[in-house]
Design brief:
Blueprint (H helix, E strand, L loop, with lengths): L1 E2 L2 E2 L2 H30 L3 H12 L8 E5 L11 E7 L17 E7 L2 E7 L10 H14 L3 E10 L9 E9 H4 L26 H13 L6 E8 L8 H9 L4 E3 L3 H9 L3 E11 L12 H10 L1 H15 L5
Parallel strand pairs: 3-6, 3-7, 7-11, 8-9, 9-10
Antiparallel strand pairs: 1-2, 4-5, 5-6, 7-10, 8-11
Helix pairs in contact: 2-3, 3-7, 5-9
The structure holds the ligand O=P(O)(O)O[C@@H]1C[C@H](O)[C@@H](CO)O1 and guanine.
The site of the ligand O=P(O)(O)O[C@@H]1C[C@H](O)[C@@H](CO)O1 has 12 residues, from β7 and α8.
Length: 323
């Protein structure tokens, strides 16, 4: 048989059809695999959680606050609270780390309409990066336009001290260097473009106002603007790793935040973030100190009132955006 440029016998055509068919099935199988990987991050799946919340919350939240380890007290600022346990929200992940309560709290502050995540999801808990960032998309569907993201972190920068606040001006996503990304896979165009910039990820205007707030609070010696680096954990860094982080321009190391920021930026949110410095990352082999989670929690508790005030004042100064 003559087919275009080539001549085939019937037998050859059968073989070719078989190969095409086989490849078609294999391709379909792979397509299905990658689709199913994203199913729980898709609009349809997340809509269920958004509908559940929308039916019970009488206002549209505009600002999402993610409380880092021990920083759940940030939600205490809110008035007229409506509280949900993560486990009661359909298609919402559940958090397992000490210091992360697992509650979504809606409320108002200085007229700003806010939702607070008291408890977040970490890569070291075994969640996929998509699962970690799932709440961002759900709350975007509800109307959220801005994100204040917080975390507990160790200081790589030797000028920082325990108890300081580091306003995040940029980050280094070490997971992305290895090809790990919450937005890997088919793009959900409803939320944002396939390719998107990150060079202005952290809102410069919010940073400017936050610095003013810190100055007014008289904590100018206790805050910095720096670069956050995501080290997946759950172990704290080795000495050699801390030295590498320093060489690469990281000021504070943590185990969260970046997946949430990536997904927030993808769907067009404004982002402000800060790290609360809970411990020093150890640079020297002869130092006897070892970081541990109880000290991390203790450090946050000691300064929780200052951090709460910092966030409340920042919201007060930016409330027009979140009404
Ligand atoms: O949720 P964040 O980033 O505040 O939590 C950090 C990372 C670990 O969960 C914990 C380590 O002590 O703090
Ligand atoms: N990676 C990392 N995360 C932290 N979270 C709190 N302290 C630390 C730390 O020293 N390193």
């Amino acid at each position: 048989m003559q087919t275009g440029l080539f001549e085939f016998t019937t037998g050859e055509i059968v073989v070719i059809c078989y190969i095409i068919d086989k490849n078609f099935h294999i391709c379909r199988k792979f397509a299905k695999m990658s689709d199913s990987k994203n199913e729980e991050f898709s609009l349809d799946y997340l809509q269920k959680a958004a509908d559940y919340l929308r039916n019970q919350v009488p206002f549209t939240p505009k600002l999402l606050i993610i409380c880092g380890t021990g920083l759940g007290g940030l939600s205490e600022n809110l008035q007229n609270q409506i509280e949900f346990n993560y486990k009661d929200i359909p298609n919402f992940p559940v958090s397992n780390v000490k210091g992360h309560a697992g509650k979504l709290i809606f409320g108002t502050l200085s007229e700003a309409k806010i939702v607070c995540m008291k408890g977040r999801f970490h890569y070291f808990e075994g969640y996929s990066l998509q699962k970690i960032a799932t709440p961002i998309r759900i709350l975007k569907l509800l109307g959220v336009e801005g994100l204040i993201v917080t975390n507990a972190a160790g200081s790589v920068n030797e000028d920082y001290k325990v108890g300081d606040i580091m306003i995040i001006k940029d980050h280094v996503n070490f997971l992305a260097f290895g090809g790990q990304h919450p937005l890997r896979g088919p793009n959900e165009h409803f939320f944002g473009e396939r390719f998107f910039p990150m060079n202005r990820a952290y809102d410069r205007e919010l940073i400017r106002i936050a610095k003013e707030v810190a100055e007014k609070m008289g904590i100018s010696d206790d805050y910095h603007e720096g670069v956050y680096g995501l080290y997946a954990g759950p172990n704290y860094e080795t000495v050699a790793e801390v030295r590498i982080l320093k060489m690469l321009g990281v000021d504070a190391a943590g185990m969260s935040t970046i997946p949430e920021v990536l997904v927030a930026k993808h769907c067009g949110m404004s982002v402000f973030g800060f790290s609360f410095i809970t411990n020093r990352c150890i640079h020297c082999y002869d130092e006897p100190d070892e970081p541990n989670h109880d000290d991390v929690l203790k450090a946050v508790m000691e300064k929780s009132e200052t951090v709460k005030k910092f966030v409340a004042n920042l919201i007060q100064e930016t409330k027009q955006r979140w009404k």
